[in-house]
Amino acid sequence: MNSGPADPATAAALARLYDLDLADDPGDVDLYRALADRVRGRVLELAVGTGRVAIPLAAAGHRVTGVDNDRHMLDRARARAAAEIGGSGGSLELVEADLFGLTLPEGAAFDFAFLALNSLMALGTRTAQQAAIQALADHLVPAGIAAVDVWLPDADDLARYDGTRILEWARPDPSSGAIVTKTGSAQYDAATGTIALTTIFEEGPQGAAALRWVRSDRLRLVSADELTGFAEAAGLRVETLAGGYDLEAHGPGSERAVLVAIRT
Ligand SMILES: C[S@@+](CC[C@H](N)C(=O)[O-])C[C@H]1O[C@@H](n2cnc3c(N)ncnc32)[C@H](O)[C@@H]1O
After folding, report:
1. Which atom of ligand 1 lies closest to the CA of 128?
2. Is the pTM value of this prediction over 0.90?
3. Residue 148 CB neighbours (<10 A)
4. What are residue 179's phi and psi, to 5 degrees?
5. pLDDT by residue (tens digit) across 103-146?
6. What is the 3-state secondary structure (H, E, C) of 32-53?
7. Edge-to-edge strand list for the sheet holding 194-204
8. What's the rounded Cα separation, in Å, for the pair 86 and 82?
9. Which of 14, 21, 32, 70 for mutating ligand 1's site (highest number of atoms within 8 Å of CB)?
């Protein structure tokens, strides 16, 4: 996550709360499973987080490697993988590393490599985003498949991002039973094409003082056109530019850009 160095207790809490936040299923796992089934080879997820996508792929029998630079996110992935992969024949290897300039010892050994759910945006700068797409391409075998997914906020979304703090949800954390609320504010900066996000999680038993965890992120917006340019500059040939996880054609009004490309 790009909130800067956090103390270990905060980093561990934010990793746990990431999973609670993602209890609202984005609906992308079937797409990645279909692409992994298509190649039937080694799979690489960059910015794997807590394994939300990588673990179901490994549980479906795929041999998956996941890279992330947040040790606490990886700790959660490791614990979940042990419980969920079982005797599927699949595996999940987790690597703590920065995507920027990433070179795994296996090199170009992967048949499918992907960056899911806005991870590219969270890298914050154009240079880091291009480097991440290059890292995907550099780890693919010839004719291997890359996939990247970014959110495309529309003008109405951006106009709302004026720093106002809003309540996003309140829900129980099944691991503790505590009620957690998530509030957040977003501030769009047209000059840099970035959104500064501040997210506040508060949790605790009703009527008692709540614990409060704060994270800050800066998302750099990426257009479908820029995403295509990143892929082509990295030596990838765009196979599909879609507007969502069903791979429907991308076009005006699309809320996402989902790119599937082939290593040339
Ligand atoms: C939006 S989460 C996505 C997690 C997971 N792929 C998913 O779809 O649920 C973004 C992830 O990118 C990781 N990340 C951010 N910057 C990174 C970097 N420079 N190198 C490696 N991982 C990074 C964060 O730690 C976080 O786990």
Report:
1. 19
2. yes
3. 25
4. -80, 130
5. 999 999 999 999 999 999 999 899 999 999 999 999 999 999 99
6. HHHHHHHHCCEEEEECCCCCCC
7. 162-172, 179-189, 194-204, 211-220
8. 7
9. 70
